């Protein structure tokens, strides 16, 4: 690839392009009100058709991957009015998507805390073979007592969880690599099915987990799945620095994102790797419409009856009292003067900035100031500008996108944001290859070479 | 249904029809030489396309289910010349099949020994929802040290394994039932997503496993998956008698099969159930061709170089010495006179019966006398006769079929055996409903009714 005509002027990103992933969750979208929107099938929570269509829309937009978070706790305190957040099963969803897409990478979370490593190894490797080399495993630890209770346990300490995670990832990569690259011969003429001397046991026994192996699955077109990680603690930096090719991040400011990205890069270096082998990918939530007002109105529709509850949140962020019955009015001069962004909430300065622009209380909230990631509520160019700024500031190698609604919300991103990024030379126009490893520019990783 | 015209005369089966399942394993078929047969793609081991096509062929034949065994040990001692026996991953295979079939039941083995119950619960329930009520879980214990080694463990005692299995099945059924039948409302107008008071924690804590729940997955069209079991020990009778609606069996004689079937029925009765709720389904292997000679020749082609090794086996079964260089000759009168069927091998009397018919040593073996189940090598009517005899003798409620080769071997069964069974009134001509529960005539099982 030659992007020399499209250089941005910033030496660190010159000629480089960003990655984009789609967050695929409960089938409706990232906003709690998505399931009630016009045009949305209220049965999408259980619809694999819907997930496949959504992944196909992302593939039309040349997204490098879809990302399916998972948390086997699924607290359902809001079930009376809201859908659970996650897929019914991330692996079955990806199996359906694998069969009905051609290029897009397939990434899901799998907990190292409450899964047997051998079971994770075989299921992700099978997906990798099934998808012809498009699988990624987001290897995380589980930290919620809600989750642990579903396994009849309590949560281990962070040290124990990460200790087990390091062993589990190492063991799983060893199982994935237990077949040499060319071990599977399947020669009908000679009758040789596989080269037995290139399929070897791994015999790893750690403090927490162990396995003899080998796995019974030959390499995929990309050798083996790619490791992702999600988390921001020092333990996360170490695990990702050692094993991961991509990090699913969460950061509200360029400064925080850049610090995170640098921490992961430094950790990779400590483990003897090229820092460019680890991509830091923070989240971005989007409500894309033809102008800001239209986008805000869409957000207001999506928020429904939740405004009073969100006003209470905003009060804490700004340290002032707000009246939930006066949603149509902007904050008073006295309120703005008294406001003090909470030091405990990194979203607070941005919330105050929006408030100072003079929007009504309802519109301030409709900007998504208390959402889980930075939020774009406006025309496509605003999303493109945000992404370019972060990318060129060394704060991100790409973004995972959570559209407000997973029907027209994905299409709006694909049709309104992607073309701008492509014109600016910041995003590819076509898949570079067939595998997720090719999409990410990650180095090859096959199995053992018993001759060495 | 009215089968009164088709009564067989036997009161216990009058008006009843048998069940048929297809064994779906490594993608080639049940014979080790299947992967080398003309017309077989040698890459089928990793091909989900192939599995889907095979399941579709079984659906064309109105089979009630496909059955995917699994043994997460996959000893690969013969990998130089033979494929491993199992699917890359049974759940991903069933996900692909679920998307590309409409009626056939989807049954896979899942070990209670080396899986977290919560993980089994959510994956089988998700499959059940995905397939619109066609999932079955073959709940077994793992007994091989080869398997245990892949989990860094040794095999627990049979008592412990079955103790954990009882807890796991009970817990999983409770998780499956943690949503009431009508708990999922998804009413866009009113904004009610679900009835929270009909989704309840299970709070089961046993000696081996526990879970708080609830699961986050609503009921499928059949409520919840159906429990299968496989095994023949007294422990197996108890587990199946308590929970299972079907048993994947293995028996070489009518007498053994009938005894097994009666033992499972008696166990069901002990647990307060109607014995007809548990179906005993032994295995049958098939090589179907236009006549016996053609079928034997096909088997000979499939056996390839393995004859000497099988002669050694046959020697032990018959208690006589056999010469592997004289494959073309029948056994001598002296050999037949000296032969004494091994009391340790239930296949031995049948092997001697075939030998006495005067077939050559090669042809004796080509009859499949040392295979894992009864074997039909001949025209379709021989399979139909076998099935009718066992069914009417109270030895089977149906059969799981292992064709020799999973291409034309399935088609041969569908085209040559199924029509005969249908004409005899022993097998349905059309699916009775949409769900596996309907196919098996199993009683409804939904979730909790918190009003009771």
Automatic annotation (TrEMBL), chains A, B:
Enzyme type, top EC level: oxidoreductase
Residue ranges crossing the lipid bilayer per the database entry: none
Keywords in alphabetical order: Flavoprotein, FMN, Monooxygenase, Oxidoreductase
Entry's EC annotation: 1.14.-.-
Name used for this protein in its record: NtaA/DmoA family FMN-dependent monooxygenase
Residues in Luciferase-like domain copies: 44-395
Membership in a protein family: Belongs to the NtaA/SnaA/DszA monooxygenase family.
Sites where the protein binds FMN: 70, 109, 162, 233
An example Gene Ontology molecular-function term: monooxygenase activity
């Amino acid at each position: 690839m030659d992007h020399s005509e499209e250089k941005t002027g910033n030496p660190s990103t010159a000629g480089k392009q960003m990655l984009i992933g789609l967050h695929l969750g409960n089938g409706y979208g990232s906003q709690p009100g998505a399931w009630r929107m016009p045009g949305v099938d209220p049965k999408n929570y259980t619809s694999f058709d819907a997930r496949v269509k959504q992944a196909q829309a992302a593939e039309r937009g040349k997204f490098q991957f879809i990302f399916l978070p998972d948390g086997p706790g699924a607290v359902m305190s809001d079930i009376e009015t809201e859908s659970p957040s996650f897929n019914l099963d991330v692996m079955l969803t990806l199996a359906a998507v694998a069969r009905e897409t051609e290029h897009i990478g397939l990434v899901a979370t799998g907990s190292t805390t409450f899964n047997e490593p051998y079971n994770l190894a075989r299921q992700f490797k099978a997906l990798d073979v099934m998808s012809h080399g498009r699988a990624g495993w987001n290897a995380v630890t589980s930290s919620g007592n809600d989750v642990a209770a579903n396994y009849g346990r309590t949560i281990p300490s962070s040290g124990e969880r990460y200790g087990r995670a390091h062993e589990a990832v190492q063991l799983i990569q060893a199982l994935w690599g237990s077949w040499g690259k060319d071990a599977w011969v399947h020669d009908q003429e000679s009758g040789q099915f596989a080269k037995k001397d290139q399929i070897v046991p791994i015999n790893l026994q750690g403090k927490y987990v162990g396995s003899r192996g080998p796995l019974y699955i030959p390499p995929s077109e990309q050798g083996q799945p790619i490791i992702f990680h999600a988390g921001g603690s020092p333990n996360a930096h170490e695990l990702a620095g050692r094993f991961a090719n991509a990090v699913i991040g969460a950061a509200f400011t360029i400064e925080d994102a850049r610090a995170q990205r640098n921490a992961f890069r430094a950790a990779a270096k400590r483990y003897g790797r090229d820092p460019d082998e680890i991509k830091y990918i923070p989240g971005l939530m989007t409500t894309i419409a033809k102008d800001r007002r239209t986008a805000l109105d869409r957000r207001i529709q999506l928020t429904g009856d939740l405004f009073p509850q969100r006003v209470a949140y905003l009060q804490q962020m700004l340290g002032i009292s707000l009246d939930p019955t006066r949603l149509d009015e902007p904050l008073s001069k006295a309120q703005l003067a008294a406001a003090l962004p909470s030091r405990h909430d990194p979203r607070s300065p941005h919330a105050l900035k929006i408030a100072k622009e003079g929007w009504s209380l309802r519109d301030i909230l409709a900007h998504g100031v208390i959402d889980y990631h930075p939020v774009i509520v406006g025309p496509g160019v605003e999303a493109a500008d945000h992404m370019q700024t972060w990318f060129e500031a060394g704060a991100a190698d790409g973004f995972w996108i959570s559209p407000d609604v997973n029907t027209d919300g994905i299409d709006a991103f694909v049709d309104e944001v992607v073309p701008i990024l492509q014109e600016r030379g910041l995003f590819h126009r076509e898949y570079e290859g067939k595998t997720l490893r090719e999409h990410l520019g990650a180095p090859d990783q096959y199995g053992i070479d018993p001759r060495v």
